[in-house]
Each structure stands twice: as C-alpha cells, then as structure tokens.
Amino acid sequence: MSSIAAAKKAATAVIKNGTGAFVQPCHKIMINFCKHSGSSRFVRNYINEHIVEFARQNPSIVIAVNHRPCAHPFIRAEYLNGSQKSIGVKNLPEEKVHEFMMFLRSHNGSPMVKIQQPIMSTSHNRRHFNALL
Amino acid sequence: MIGAVRLSARALGASAAQLSRQTAVAAAMPRAHYSANNTELPSISHLEFDGPRFTAQIPEFFEARAAAFAARIGVDFSDKKTLHQALIHPSFSPGRGNYNDRLSYLGYSLLHAIVTEHIYVTYPNLPTHAISNLVDTHLSNESLYHLGKSLGLDQLLLWKPANDTYALIIDEHQRLSANGSDFVAPAEPEPVSKDRRRGDANVIGRSFHAIAGAIYHEQGHQGVRNFANKFILSRVTDIGAGISIRNPRLVLEAFCKKYELETPTYQIIRESGRASHRSMFMVGAFSGKRLLGIGNARSIDVAQIVAAKNALRAHFLEQVQNPLQLELGPDASIEEWAPARTPASDSLPIS
C-alpha cells in the first residue's frame, strides 16, 4: 500500500450529533390501545386531545396509532440506531402518558449503561508518561 | 448576445436571410448559467406507479417516513414526489419507472464541487493528494453510508440487496432442474456482517447523492450548499491524517528554497537519558533563527524527521480564518508562511 493510500485509509469523518445539525434520534412512536377496555381509557383521551399537537411539534417522528382489542395499552418508540423501547401505560392518567411520550421522544436509543468508574478519560495512560512528549 | 451576433454578421457582410437565421439560433440557445434567485430547471419526469404489483411492494408508512425524513434534514419539499423518487433505488423494481439514478448523478457532481471548493478555499496550502483524500473522506460511499444511517435513510430507502438476487437465481435453478437442465447455481454470497446487507454502502451512499439532487430541484444550488454545510462538512475530520509526506527533510528544504528562506538546520532543544535505553530528544527545525517545527523521538535522526514533518504539516494546514472573505489570487503572502505556533504533540507513528 502506498503512503498516499495509507493516508487515505487513516482519514475518517466522525459524526457528532449537534454540530452543524441536530437530528432527533427517535424516528417513530407507536401507541397500541383498545377501544373498549378500561385500562386504555386515559390513553384514548390522550389520543383524542393531544396526539395531533404532539405530532405537529415533532415533525421528524412518525406517529402510528393501532387498535389492539382486549390488550393493555403500551407505547413503543423506534430509534435511528435500530433499537426500540416500550413502556406499558395501562390505567395511567393522561399526564403520565404524556410524560412517557416526552421521555421516549427525548431518549437516545442507546442502552442504559451503569457508570462504574467515577472518572473517565479519553487520553492515554499515564504509565508511559514522558515529560518531553 | 444577440447584438454581438448581429454585429459580427454585418462585419462579415452576411445576407439578411443568414442574419435572421443566426439571431434565431442565438435566441433559441438555452441559458448557460442558472442564477440562485431565478432558477429555471427542466421538470423531472416523476415515478409512475406501474400497476398494483409495484405499489404492493411499497411498505406502509413510506410517505409518512419520507415526510419525517424531510423534516429531519430540514427541507420542506413542495413536491413530495421529487423526494419519493430520490428514495427509490433502481434495484427496487428494475425497469418499471424512473428511479433516483439521474438525481444521484446530479447530487454527486454538486456535492463534490461544493466540498472541493470548501477545502480548496479553507486550506490554500494543502497538497493535491490531501485535497483528494479529504474529499473522499467526506463523500465516499462508506462515509455517506454512516451519515445516511444516522439520518435514518437505511430504514426508508426502497432497494433490494444482492442476497435477494441470489434467491431469484436459486428459484430459476430449481425451475430449470425440474426441466432436466444442467444449470449449476453459484455459491451463496456471504453477508458483510449481521446487521449489514450486501451492497448497502454503495446503495445508501448513492441515494444520499440523490437526496442532494432532490434538494437542488427544490431549493437550487444554495440549498445544496446549506445541506452540505449542515451535515457533511460539519463532521469532525482529522485533516492531517490525509497528508502523506515522503522524506520530509528533503521536502522541507525544497519548500524553504521555494519561499526564499534559509536552508533548514536541526538543533537539539532538550534531551534526556542520552546513554540509556529510554532516551528522548526534542529537536527543532530552524530556518536561520526562525523555528519552523519541533519533533520528539527516541533518536536524533527520527526527531529531525518528525520536526520536518511537523513544520510541513503546520504549513499545509494553514487555515484561512474567514474563507468567505478570501480573495483568491497569486499574491499569497510569503511572510505569513512561517508557522509561529508549534504543534502540541506529534501524533506521528515513529517506526
């Protein structure tokens, strides 16, 4: 491999969301509910009164509302990194449903990681430190 | 234009019939330049859905997903069919309509022109191979694949991977073998990885160009420029990684001759542990009394090479502060060439 080809291989463009443009990681939210059962009654109210406003405020998210009879309601969000996240909302009031909608909308889609080390560093280890370097 | 034609025709002594024919030709010529405010584009022939067999293949929520994608890239498409056409790859249903290949070619040329112009103007000293490497870093299919994925293009695009073509070949094989043919099916191609399909870097990269072409139809050249600034040029790139310098000491000497500076000399600035196994030298490349670059290494020879490399790098990566105000001209100031700032650390591998 020539040195120019090696240099070409070394160069990469790293995407940092938020520099230049911010892209909402959530791209689809699906609400499953039942038209008749009691556990979906607040979700039905939320869909009737607030879902259009939510969709208007978030144009980059596809909203899908599905009637699933005889089942408890839940919200499922899909993210650009391929993951998805679901939250059950049976018997929950409208404020709580809205809270979960906002949570799923704002979520990154990456799995929750417990931070074990109190200090994180991106630089090299200090063991081979040389004062001149 | 027409007046010029008429004048030259009179000067040649042309007849009235010739004159009128020439003016007619000049009037019928298309305008060579499209201005940003008064863009006149030929209308594109949109995808015509070819019967229920074609429409049955289009997944549900396609139009909603396309609208969400348009909101994500911040472009309001007045004609949504232009966007839909940019999202349909020729492999989707071959020979059944107009796909994104024309838009893709347009977007390819536009994006390359815009990115090359940006690099050329921002880094006036960058060598040609580094410009080429940097343009490829921004616009290679692999790079645009990752960008398209971060925008959700891979979940939206309509295309068929090569593995599906293999399934068609196997079907054909079974049909022929039932008829007693000796057709031998090829071996099944391996997928690239678990979550990647064959050819997706090419398909998504080219379709990303098609998005730029669709934006050109909607917003003109300035729209594509804003799009490139927002999504392509805003990514973090190590520009120095694309530079390759062979024999840096010779090249630095040649550059000093070119800019009429004194021949570079190398002096040890600091050192530690000369006789030990873990020696370290800090060497500076000087032109007269002017420090051009500093190199740190375990031997003096390598430290000189690194110092020359850093001096050349600092020269190549000299950045124009405000590229928009730059007036390109041959009288680039030589006095400003000497790199006053020293690199914080040398990231070069010492071998």
Automatic annotation (TrEMBL), chain A:
Pfam families assigned to the protein according to its UniProt record, in alphabetical order: L51_S25_CI-B8 (PF05047)
Alphabetic keyword roster: Mitochondrion, Ribonucleoprotein, Ribosomal protein
GO MF entries: structural constituent of ribosome
Source species, domain of life: Eukaryota
GO cellular component: mitochondrial large ribosomal subunit
Domain Ribosomal protein/NADH dehydrogenase positions: 35-108
Subcellular location per the Swiss-Prot or TrEMBL entry: Mitochondrion
GO BP annotations, alphabetical order: mitochondrial translation
Xref: InterPro entries: Ribosomal_mL43 (IPR039927), Ribosomal_mL43/mS25/NADH_DH (IPR007741), Thioredoxin-like_sf (IPR036249)
Entry annotated with the keyword Ribonucleoprotein: yes
Keyword Ribosomal protein: yes
Annotated coiled-coil segments of the chain: none
Family, similarity comment: Belongs to the mitochondrion-specific ribosomal protein mL43 family.
Name the UniProt record assigns to this protein: Large ribosomal subunit protein mL43
From TrEMBL, chain B:
SUPFAM superfamilies reported for this sequence: dsRNA-binding domain-like, RNase III domain-like
Subcellular location: Mitochondrion
Annotated Pfam families: DSRM_MRPL44, Ribonucleas_3_3
GO (cellular component) term, any one: mitochondrion
UniProt entry keywords in alphabetical sequence: Mitochondrion, Ribonucleoprotein, Ribosomal protein, RNA-binding
Domain of life of the organism encoding this protein: Eukaryota
PROSITE patterns, sorted: DS_RBD, RNASE_3_2
Gene Ontology biological process terms from the UniProt entry: RNA processing
Annotated DRBM domain residues: 247-317
Residue span(s) of domain RNase III: 66-220
One annotated GO molecular function: ribonuclease III activity
Family, per entry: Belongs to the ribonuclease III family. Mitochondrion-specific ribosomal protein mL44 subfamily.
PANTHER family: LARGE RIBOSOMAL SUBUNIT PROTEIN ML44 (PTHR11207:SF32), RIBONUCLEASE III (PTHR11207)
Protein name stated in the entry: Large ribosomal subunit protein mL44
